[in-house]
Amino acid sequence: MKCCKRVISSKSQNILILFMLILICPAAWAAEDSADISTESAGPTSRIVGGKEAEKGAWPWMAAIVDADSTSNYDGQFCGAELIHPQWAITAAHCVDGELPQNIAVALGLHNLETDTGERVGVKRIIVHPDYNDRTDDVDIALLELDRSVEYETLSLYTGTDSLSGKTAVTIGWGSTDPVFKSYPEELRQVSVPVVSNTTCNAAFNAYASYYDDPITDNMMCAGFEEGGKDACQGDSGGPLIVAEDGQWQLAGVVSWGEGCAEPGIYGVYTRVSRFADFVAQYVPPAGDLNGNGYVGLEDVIGILRIVAEIRPRTTSATNCGDFDSDGDLTLADGIGILKLLTMP
Ligand code: ARG
């Protein structure tokens, strides 16, 4: 098993697998457009700041971090997080630094924090990156090990070397919709923002206030519009900045900090996830290796099938449906899953 995870990926094989995928995931294919980023309304009534309500179920890996002692997810939510493995979530270090695992929980399957039940999962371990600097917000990244596996689609990380400048990205959260009079929505919201280069971002912050001297490190990235109006805000921290790469959404940034929200002339700052692939890999098993034993075996295949069976009726936009190991590629490992699915009674 160990030898074969990433082997065969000849073109014809991929085409065959793709054909099977269309057979098993027609809804996912049709729904691909619904997660599209162009349908945002602007104007004073739209929120995250300047965004729109997410489509229910569109971001199945989106989690809320809540106070364990709060029975209300709405009252208890204080940050976002992303499920990157059935038993691991990624968030901002500043969200969980100094917290005890037993005092927080990860809530999944939520759109409306007030009315949806979703499910709450305990946290077994909080891993704040050892280089996190709470003064400069450098290396603002942390991992949460859940106390059990959950069955939701996971988000894969953007691990490319591109700076992503100029790319449109989407940030998502339950954070404030109003930069001044903090107002927290019940529903999950999203907004599209272009990534700007670190050079542009540093120049903008340096010009904004004299206490800034190139605050944007290589471990950070920025996104937003020069004219302001669209941004993440308080309560969105730990949430995602996703980009569409190779036909799937990938996690490029984690909501980290800003000056106010959506102000003109400056940008929202995110942790640059591609810098932390090694940190993540140190703790989080490869996507298909659900039981973390170091290889993708039969037990994992069964687990994957269980997840797919769970997800399919619930998801409106399984854009990476069939890419079971979330490596961005349809390989033999995915094919085994598809074949098993197709031969189920
Ligand atoms: N630090 C904030 C939080 O804890 C998020 C700030 C993001 N701000 C921004 N303007 N993009 O929720």
From TrEMBL:
Keywords: Disulfide bond, Hydrolase, Protease, Serine protease, Signal. Residues 1-30 form the signal peptide. Residues 48-285 form the Peptidase S1 domain. GO terms for biological process: polysaccharide catabolic process; proteolysis. SMART domains: Tryp_SPc. GO terms for molecular function: serine-type endopeptidase activity. The keyword Disulfide bond applies. This is Peptidase S1 domain-containing protein. It comes from Desulfonema ishimotonii.
